What we know:
Layout: H1 2-9, E1 16-20, H2 24-27, H3 36-43, E2 50-53, H4 55-60, E3 69-73, E4 75-76, E5 89-90, H5 94-99, E6 104-111, H6 116-132, E7 137-143, H7 153-165, E8 170-173, H8 179-187, E9 193-196, H9 204-217, E10 221-224, H10 226-229, H11 234-245, H12 251-255
Parallel strand pairs: 1-2, 1-10, 2-3, 3-6, 6-7, 7-8, 8-9, 9-10
Antiparallel strand pairs: 4-5
Helix pairs in contact: 7-8, 8-9, 9-11
Amino acid sequence: MKDLRMRRLFGENGRTVIIAFDHAAFMGPMRGLEDPGSLLDSIRNTGINAVLTTQGIARSFATRFGSLGLLLRADGGSSMRNPQMGDIHRIVSVEDAVRLGADAVVCMGMIGFPEETSSLLNLTELVSQAAVWNMPVMAEMLVKASENKEPTAEDIGFAMRVGVELGADIIKTPFAGPMEQYRKQMAACYRPVVVLGGAKVDDESGLLTSVAKALEAGASGVAIGRNVWQHGNPTGMCRALVALVHGGASVAQALTEIK
């Protein structure tokens, strides 16, 4: 059953384009997420594979998902307005995720953050619970940046390996160059890796170039949010990502899907 769920999330080429819009559970109202139903209507037939979202959206807009796979955010416990975020907890059970038709559950792994211990304990507990239901687990593995530099490929590789050792089936994590070093780190991660999109950027070419480099290094796809639904053309951005991940397009070719 787990293999069936995984096949709903990944294409025949073993790659996936996931659009993430679980942000409002932590950040509240956001530009681009005012109407989740309309967003789903605009992106579901673009060739993307799945969406990563919250139980609120999954419950309220179930009829708008079409054939898209569903990854459900299972952890949380505070909002960005809390001056001390505190521990991370499971807020959705795997049983509830099954009832909602989810194909995977998602939780954080926050290396170097104050929440590291609670997030990793939460990950291990979620993996154990998910095994009862043959439910895949995606671990969103983040690394705290130092004051002087962003996390390196080696830092991200450390986080990837921790995630898979704790039982995650899929790793969601940033891309960091150089590409060959990232490739080396992914070679030590024996589960599929999807690259997250991060904060909104205005450089479409730069974003797609990073995606192309990650794919060349061995990534199995992307899980991108703000750079899709805060873009002026979310449908075109989805098609551009699909062209890169599934169509073998160059960055220049993918950019034509946006114009």
